Amino acid sequence: MNQWDTERIRSYIVRLDEQMEGGMPKGHVVLISGNPGTYKSSLAYNILYHNAVNNDMKGLYVSFQQSRESLQDQFNSLGMPHEDVDDKITIVDVGYLRQTMKTRPQDWIDVFKRYVDNIRATTHYDMLVVDSLTTLEIISNVENKRESLFQLFEWLRSFRGLTSFMIIERPTKEDVMKEEEFLADGIIYLSKERLGHMETRRFLTIDKMRATKHNTSYFALLFDGGRFQVTRVISE
Question: Count of CB atoms within 10 A of residue 196's CB?
Fold first, then answer.
């Protein structure tokens, strides 16, 4: 067994890492999946932010839809100010590039790869967030989606020790599984449920995590005291 089999990336979500043997195996491609408003982007950045602060790890956050300024405001409001880690985390606003390019490329996946290659050539980063893979798929108009995603995921895995987090939209867990869910190494699924007219609860489950014993129970997802945390769901 080599070192990559045992090294893990912590989520820094209170009580979650112990549900998957201490964290996600380094080098995995992990989907953060769910419907809108379930903290997908914030949880992904939470992983980058706290690993940068606590472990001096570097991260790259690539956004295809939300502006850099909007993301920074969002993360600042959750107690994760980007200025604390701007020497370790790079946010790339591809959405701005999409708006300003005079000639739109035929293959945005190729554009994404070149961006990642160029930045990695000057800055070695340990973690990558793609926000979102759903948008990248839509604007790329690929003919063979499964093959394109297979090649993309294998390309990401070719970077030794790089752990990738791909955000995807999945309205309900009962939807037909998408190609990326079969190809990914891990899936963290987020959902929300409205209770009456006043309260919305959010939930998290570890749907899949290769090379890891993990708890598949539903957990309530909370943001309290400046930290994300999970608690066991109590049946009513």
Answer: 6
